[in-house]
Amino acid sequence: MKTLLCALIVVLFCSASVHSLTCYTCVDGDCKTPTVCPASSNFCKTVSTASVFSRTCEEFCVPGVNVYCCTSDLCA
Fold first, then answer.
1. Please, which residues bridge with residue 49 across strands?
2. Other beta carbons within 10 Å of 46
3. Distance between CA atoms of 76 and 58, rounded to whole angstroms?
4. pLDDT tens per residue across span 11-44
5. Which terminal residue of the chain has fewer beta carbons within 10 Å of its beta carbon, N or C?
6. Euclidean distance between CA atoms 34 and 16, whole angstroms
7. By C-alpha distance, which of 28, 29, 30, 64 is closest to 45?
8. In whole angstroms, what is the distance from residue 41 CA to residue 57 CA?
9. Could you give all domains of the chain from N- to C-terminal order, each with its CATH number?
10. Within 10 A of 31 (CB to CB), how many other CB atoms are there?
11. How would DSSP label each residue in 10-35?
């Protein structure tokens, strides 16, 4: 019984420590809106071109000339 209780406590502790990423999100507007991303999102993605500026939560992100990817809360 003690083993089961200890296992349950460990599971609860580990599940409580899961943290969702928070990113600024927008499309061509005020890009300071903090958004708690879905658990599947691992990146904050910023796309900046002459015609588009957007910030989104993304599961995958490949950085490039106009694409910036980061993994910390409210990174820009």
1. none
2. 22
3. 14
4. 444 444 568 999 999 988 888 899 999 999 999 9
5. N
6. 22
7. 64
8. 6
9. 20-76 (2.10.60.10)
10. 14
11. HHHHHHHT----EEEEEESS---EEE
H or E element that contains 46: strand 43-48
Residues 6+ apart with CB under 8 A from 39: 18, 20
Distance, CA of 49 to CA of 62 (rounded, Å): 16
- What residue has token string 């599947």? 40
pTM over 0.85: no
Q: pLDDT of 35-74, one tens digit each? A: 999 999 999 999 999 999 999 999 999 999 999 999 999 9
